[in-house]
Amino acid sequence: MKTIIENVSRRRFIVGAGGLVIAAQFISLKSFAEMHEDYKTGAGAMPHGVVTDPHVFVTIDKNGLVTIIASRAEMGTGAARTTLPLIVADELEADWSRVRIKQSPGNEERYGNQDTDGSRSVRHFIQPMRHIGASVRLMLAMAAAKHWGVDVSDVEAKNHEIINKKTGAKIGYGAVAVEAMALPAPSADQVTLKTADQFRYIGKGTIKPVDQKDIIMGKAVYGIDAKVPGMRFAVVARPPVFGGKMVSYDDSATMKVPGVEKVVVIEGTPAPAKFAPLGGVAVVAKNTWAAMQGRDALKITWDDGPHAVYDSATYRTQMEETARKPGVVVRNDGDAEKALASAAKVVTAEYYLPHISHAQMEPVSATAHFANGKLEVWAPLQSPGGTRDELAKKLGIKPEDVTVHELLLGGGFGRKSKCDYAIEAALLSKAVGAPVKVIWTREDDIQHDFFHTVSVERIDAGLDQSGKVVAWRHRSVAPTIFALFVPDPKHESALEMGMGLVDNPFDIPNLRCENGEAEAHTRIGWFRSVSNIPHGFAVQCMVAEIAQAAGRDPKDMLIELIGPPRIVDPRKSQDVKDFWNYGDPFESYPIDTARLRGVVELAAEKSDWGKPLPPRHGRGIAVHRSFLTYVATVVEVAVDEKGKLTVPRVVTAVDAGFIANPERVHSQMEGAAVMGYALARYGEISFKNGRAQQGNFDTYKVTRINESPAQTEVHMVPHGLDVPSSGIGEPGVPPFAPALCNAIFAACGKRIRSLPIGDQLST
Amino acid sequence: MNVTVNGRQHAFDGDPSMPLLWYLRDELGLTGTKFGCGIAECGACTVHVDGEAVRACATPMSGVADRKVTTIEGLSPDGSHPVQKAWHALNVPQCGFCQAGQIMQAAAMLAANKNPSEAEINQTMAGNICRCGCYQRISAAIKSAITGA
Lengths: 763, 149
Ligand code: FES
Ligand code: FES
Prior knowledge:
The structure holds 2 protein chains of 2 kinds.
Chain A: H1 2-17, H2 21-26, H3 32-35, H4 54-57, E1 58-60, E2 66-70, H5 79-91, E3 99-103, H6 108-111, H7 121-148, E4 155-158, E5 161-164, E6 170-172, H8 173-182, H9 212-216, E7 232-237, E8 245-250, H10 252-256, E9 260-266, E10 280-285, H11 288-296, E11 299-303, H12 312-323, E12 328-333, H13 336-341, E13 345-353, E14 365-371, E15 374-379, H14 384-395, E16 402-406, H15 420-432, E17 436-439, H16 442-447, E18 455-463, E19 469-477, H17 494-497, E20 510-515, H18 532-550, H19 554-562, E21 567-568, E22 591-592, H20 593-606, E23 617-626, E24 629-639, E25 645-655, H21 662-681, E26 687-688, E27 691-692, E28 712-716, H22 736-748
Parallel strand pairs in A: 2-3, 7-17, 15-16, 19-20, 25-28
Antiparallel strand pairs in A: 1-2, 4-5, 5-6, 7-10, 8-11, 9-10, 12-20, 13-18, 14-15, 14-17, 18-19, 21-22, 23-24, 24-25, 26-27
Helix pairs in contact in A: 5-7, 7-8, 14-15, 18-19, 18-22, 19-20, 21-22
Chain B: E1 2-5, E2 8-11, H1 20-27, E3 46-49, E4 52-55, E5 68-70, H2 72-75, H3 82-89, H4 99-112, H5 118-125, H6 135-147
Parallel strand pairs in B: 1-5
Antiparallel strand pairs in B: 1-2, 3-4, 3-5
The structure holds FE2/S2 (inorganic) cluster (FES) (2 copies).
């Protein structure tokens, strides 16, 4: 109550005196975080946290044109350049047709965290963006009230105008823009957010993606499209084996290629090298083609280094052996060993998921210009701010002397979180004294990726006489991403184990998770949904295997394992260390089995689960919580006598809390099914002599239209703002592959435990 | 040699084996045509040569001498080609990187066959990869362009 009284009095005072600052000396200012106690996220704990200063994000010109800054990376989810801006615009009562979006450079001191990753954009920024929009709305109201000499409570913002409620007079945003934007940012407790029933754009899904028109006209500018006067083009011959080095090279033939200008050596960095370039020999030329020809003509002797013997088939055997022995216990409820020993039936299965490559449609690329001690970079970057710091460090200059121009990403999926290509461009520009664009060919992009990890997951489940699951032991073995950051870590990090291993939500009294040792023999990085892929695959296939062993319906088995509605808190289980909950507070985002069950039931109902299908058709179901979102997927397949697989229908149910832009949620879930199909059906990067065996879309196949799931239906669980928004970009992926493989089993009785499916159905 | 791109004639005296893709992107600055694979596997670089869809990454400059090349920038002045309109109406793109190629492929298909069957659509469009997975909407947009809906 007190706050409200203070609010009212201060507003009066402010309008009368025409300024906030004096008032602020009398009344303590509430921060954004204090005002949003009921909507806590981990945003503030991210590097450089959240900036809610409206002056940083919004400008309005005299004609009323509103410019909203997009500070995060746009890679196709629509979050950065459509959804977050429409949230600002809605709270600002702006008319969307008079809104422009401007991309910010990389600068986290100014814009707050820009690391576009972990399905965080909407979940961390919906409230800050609402606050920014509402702040500007108030500033406009204050300026208009002053203009009319009335109290701010006598005016109201509506569709790009301020209305004088007493007289009915109207004044456009443009007319008061200068005065309004000269006001200091209101304190958080002065700002009134809209109620959900007042939303015009938020939650509606009616806004066209901002860049769509440019995209279909070929005018949208992606990182690889950067144009800088005087720019040269470069391709790099990188060590074919991770950790290898160039010993010597002969560029005499290269220098004879017309258009080739220079050959430059890039030094590699010994592991752990974070995002540093792999090193190698770069050819700089007048155009990409000449650079590529020049590279082909190089004669290079490599020292392949310690991973020259990496063979993924041998390594798989090694990982399987590890998974058959006890590992480090990372969660321990009850006594799984004892319960397994006394179980009436034990079901055991081992799952294998190979390395995969992101293969985002735009190969990584960057353009850099280093001159007079200053660096400018144009690139598609998931972390433009972080990249700026990495570039400054690498070149030994101050971050203030680095300008990172963020362009559109032709897909990211985690690959473009790692800025090795931008560092390459910077080093090359410095070496040749001109702007340089580095192009990675598709082969470069696939063979020198930061690969999704390879893993063996082994689960033993013990059933009692009645067929109830009483014991569960899940052993996970996979080289960790953290090999990028620390020497030889050997075990999955808490982050990886928190993605579907230790956060297992099942109602099983004796539940044990273990993690065996595994060494990284190539660059491992995060791929859309990360460790949720192998963990979710194993757990959700296992449920169907148990159902089969117990003679039960897989969906009923799943519901039984999820158990009664409750909050599952892994922090209360023994041996769980540093449970991270995707960096967000557990209180805002608990593991809620009622919501988990809810999506299972929704997907089952919408997919006609249990209704008869034609012969050799089958349905499979899987559910997974990742990035704080619950997704259940039912896949319907047909497998003909020859083993030809088709997917006539996919039904996905999503519970992602409050949905800010349902239209783009649809597209993300449709896309997740296509990517899920690719990784299940084809996804494999294998290694021989340390070298990736696939190089382009002829050998590393991805889903094409003629085999793609024909129809993906998306059903969202409706929530108000009281249920915080959670991730969207990634959570659609994990349940797809297990649902597909469960469907294949239902259709033809073939159980797939090793991905990719490849030709396993035809043998 | 001469080549006409989007109605403008250009003289070319460079390496005749250079793929059209790099000429368009690096020399003419027409970056709407994308590089995705370089080996005619993904369709991102699809352009029209004398009205037919070809992969610019696998078409040497010598192959377009005295021919007419149309890129996405030249498909329509304002995005009003029926395929572009359908793409916009159905919000097809995600990241958008493949879409110029998809649109050019679909436009060439419909120019040659006003009413392709589902199987024909799938077969013709199978050369164009969309890693974001917009296929369901690509399919729907083509059907909508056919009916003019
Ligand atoms: S770039 Fe030409 S088909 Fe892929
Ligand atoms: S929209 Fe991203 S590859 Fe097609």
